[in-house]
Amino acid sequence: KAGVTQTPRYLIKTRGQQVTLSCSPISGHRSVSWYQQTPGQGLQFLFEYFSETQRNKGNFPGRFSGRQFSNSRSEMNVSTLELGDSALYLCASSLAPSGGADTQYFGPGTRLTVL
Amino acid sequence: AQSVTQLGSHVSVSEGALVLLRCNYSSSVPPYLFWYVQYPNQGLQLLLKYTSAATLVKGINGFEAEFKKSETSFHLTKPSAHMSDAAEYFCAVSDANSGYALNFGKGTSLLVTP
User: How far is residue A68's CA from residue B46's CA, in Å, rounded to a whole number?
Assistant: First the structure.
């Protein structure tokens, strides 16, 4: 069974631009979560989607948004990029909405560099 | 609010020696606890998880962790380190108050020397 895939793997943007990252969950998984990883702040939860609905949201500004499609694929968008948005963005999928015991499987991430 | 503290941002052990990575958590409700490993330029891989069943949890690659409620700890151990264990290790907690989102510690970088 294929794992979680994320595209693109690497991305370079300039300040003020916007970016869209894509995540395809493991087949059969309906929940997708997004995390940001930076050297300074570590791993931080962005949001979770299940059945095309945002189920949970972390403490990030409104420039960060996401959506989920009917096939469970998810995209996240960051508008008006700032230097501090440079990070590894990780997507994780699970069978059902995170209920504690359900395992989240992570993709390899998208490395975003903002110049 | 829940939190996770990993003691020691860098740990160095000799090949064949015991690996001990420390994790303490705080949560006002029963937590679920996880250990993930990250190799360079890769995503996170689940090593093991505690979900209120047995307090001693066995994971992949010979790792195990013990949930100690009285100490609010979930330390990760492995009896004998291999060179391939060198990686970044993350402890995470989730609970109902956070909507079960994973809250990660800052990570511990494990170096294994020959």
Answer: 24
- Maximum pairwise Cα distance, chain B: 44
Q: Which residues of B touch A58 (CB under 8 A)?
A: 101
| Backbone torsions φ then ψ of B96, nearest 5 degrees | -65, -35
For residue range A72-101, what is the model confidence (pLDDT) as tens digits? 999 999 999 999 999 999 999 998 776 666
**Chain A (26-85) residues lying within 8 Å, Cβ to Cβ, of chain B:** 33, 35, 42-45, 48, 55-56, 58
Single-letter residue type at A63: R
Chain A hits for B99, Cβ within 8 Å = 48, 55-56, 98
Does A115 have pLDDT greater than 70? yes
Window 38-57 of B, Cβ < 8 Å to A: 41-46, 49, 51
Nearest to B1, CA basis, from B112, B99, B109, B108:
B99
A16, two tokens: 């003020």
Tens digits of residue pLDDT in B89-99? 999 998 888 88
